[in-house]
Amino acid sequence: MSWCFLATTIHKSQGSEYPIVVMPVTMSHFVMLQRNLLYTGVTRAKKILVLIGEKRAVSYAIKNETTTARNTKLAERIQNGAAQGSKKGNPAETGTAAQQKMKMIPYKGGAQPSMAMEEPALYGGDLFQRLSQSKFRSSFSLKTNDRHYVNEKGMDTVRSHAFEFIEKRLAPAVIPNDGKQTPMRGHPVFVAQHATATCCQGCLQKWHSIPAGTELTAQQKEYVVDIIMEWIGRQMKP
Ligand SMILES: [Zn+2]
Fold first, then answer.
1. What domains sit in the chain, N to C, each tagged with a CATH number?
2. Exposed, middle or buried, 135 (CB in 10 Å: 0-12/13-18/19+)?
3. Measured in angstroms, how far is the CA atom of residue 134 from the centroid of ligand 1?
4. How many CB atoms are located within 10 Å of the residue 152 CB?
5. 182-205 pLDDT, tens per residue?
6. Which of 34, 45, 133, 212 could form a disulfide with 49 if both were Cys (CB 3.0 to 4.6 A apart)?
């Protein structure tokens, strides 16, 4: 039995009860670990409830009230991508295709965007230790031209660039393209932002507990710039 199948069953099972419920709760499909799904599954059992999997998966599901919202965003992004990608076909078809695509994503391993695979809440240690546990975050490094740029401009100038970028692209309360506002390359600060999960408000919330949708305070801006510069400093070490 797969978690995917089970999730569907949980939705379908709402309003019914069963004498025995056997439910896999596993980290391998953590995207489905949501408090409401666990609750619905557990409360279907009349006599016997068997949870199979990992203890931490259960505690993760209990803590996780945010997955639905995150998936909605992901669906939006995929839909936007699909809409841009296909010039023919009516929007309804595109939507359905995108929805099917989204449903498949958590189960296809390599097809899933690396960011969606991150679970910072489960990583241990300080920020840099946690970042090193994310495949996506740890895949970033300063390339020769970035290092050259930092050497040429100096850390103080790069820091002032970081402030400018944060001020314009990350600090405002409303960022219409949040999640897409930071290029993957072109400036060492951009690279550092992805590496340190300070690339958008969504990542700030997930990794740094700075709530999305609110304007960054002076202190928070300082914090973000400090992290970016710390990462760049570490990268510049021979
Ligand atoms: Zn981000």
1. 3-63 (3.40.50.300), 70-112 (no CATH), 122-236 (no CATH)
2. exposed
3. 13
4. 9
5. 999 999 999 999 999 999 999 999
6. 45
